[in-house]
Amino acid sequence: MSRVTERDLLPWTQAAFDAFFISQGRQAHAYLLAGHSGLGKTVFAEHLAKTLLCQESDQKACGQCQSCRLFESGSHPDLHVLQSEKRTIDFADLFATYAPRYLEDESKRNKRKKPSAVIAIDQVRDVVPDINTRPHLSNCRIIILNAAEDLNINAANSLLKSLEEPPSDSFFLLISHDPGRLLPTLRSRCNRIDFRLPEKQQALDWLNSQLPGVPNTADLLDSAAGIPLRALALAGGEESADNSQVTDVMLQLANRQIDPVSAASELIKKSELADILTAVQVLISRIIRIKFASGNPLSAKNNCDRVLLDCGKRLNFKQLYAFLDIVSNTKQLAGGPLDDTLALEDNLISWQNLFS
Ligand SMILES: [Zn+2]
Asked: Which CATH class for the 239-353 domain?
C-alpha cells in the first residue's frame, strides 16, 4: 500500500470536507473529529490542516507553494501536533514527524519501562507560547490533538483555557476515536464533525480500488465490521503488534502451553492494560463472528480464521459473552488503583479455566 494512496481523502469524508469550507464564514476555532478508528479522521485532519495552511488555494491544498512543500516534508512551522509517545512510535505517519517537538527528550523517555500513552500537561504547556505569537509562514496555525482522549485530566483542563479564548488565527483539531471519554466541557467547546460508517457499496468500491484483483473483499469488509481502513489492514496482514501478540498468547493459554502468570507479565511489559484488553475484546468478538458464520461452508477461509474457529468450537456462545463481560469490567477499572498485572492475570486465568 503506497503512502500516496493511503493519504488521499477518503471518499465518504469528502462531503464533510467540502462542507467545512462552504461554512467558512462562520468557522469556529476548535473542531472535534469524532468517530470510530478506521474511518479516515486522521487523513481528514491532515488534508484540512494542509488546506488551511496553503498560501495559494482556499479549498484544496495546491501542493506547490512553500507551505504545502514544508507541510509534506514534516517541517511546517505553523503545524503543531500533540500526541502520545506511544502513538508516535506505533504509527509512522506524517503526524509522527511533527509530534517529537512536544515530547519529552530521550533521556527522560528512556527512564520509563514502556512508551507513555498519554498527552501530558507539559506538552500542552509547551505549545501555548507557540500559539500566542504570529504564524510564521501561513495565515493561520493549526494545533492537532491526536487523540484527544489521550489527554490526561490535567492536560485536558489546561487545554480548556486555550479553547476558551483561542487566538483568532488558530485552529484546534481534536481527533477522537472515543469521544464519550472526553471531558464534556472539552466537547462542548468544539464544533463536532462526525465520522460514520460509509454505505456498504461505497466502502466496497473504495476497498476494491485499493486491492485490485483481490477476491472476497466483501468478506474482508464484514470481518472488519464494515470499517474500511480496518478491512484494508486485514488484507495486508497489518494486524497491530499488540493484537497479534495477544492472539498468540490467548491461543497458547487455551492449549495450556503457557501459564497465565507469565503470560500476563510478558504482555504488560510491552503495552498498557487498557490496550491489551482492547485487543482481547477484538479477538473474542472475532472468534464469536467466525463461530457464528461457521455454518456457512464458505467461511473460515484463511489459516488464522481456522485456528480461531477451532478455538471457538471448544466453547459455547454463553461462555464467550460471559468472558467478554469480564474483560470489559476490568477495562473500566484500568487506570485506577488496580494492579495492572494482577488484573490481567485474573482475566487470563478466567480464560484458561474455560478450557479445562
Ligand atoms: Zn499550497
From this structure: mainly alpha
